[in-house]
Design goal:
Blueprint (H helix, E strand, L loop, with lengths): L2 H19 L3 E6 L2 E6 H23 L42
Antiparallel strand pairs: 1-2
Length: 103
Amino acid sequence: MKLSWLFVILLLVFVAVFSVQNATPISVRFLAWEFAISAALVIQLAAVLGALVGLAVGAWSRRPARPVNEVPPPPEREIPLPPPRALPLGGSSPESRKPDLDS
């Protein structure tokens, strides 16, 4: 077993024992609300919130960093095509209107 998992398990046991030994009800005030809640629940919620924040920061710090001097590629744009040329009236192409020199 990895040492980090052993540390996590020991920390969980410590938080559980600590919260159970401090299970007396306390008054919690937040902004306009005030309510009585078990201190064990407050301790466990704080531990879970701290773990989630730690995981988020750890995941964010492991993302691949873009070098500072790297310039991102420009966005791809479509190159506009010139407007189509109209065929002369009668539908013939310029090649078919050349005079016949053999006769």
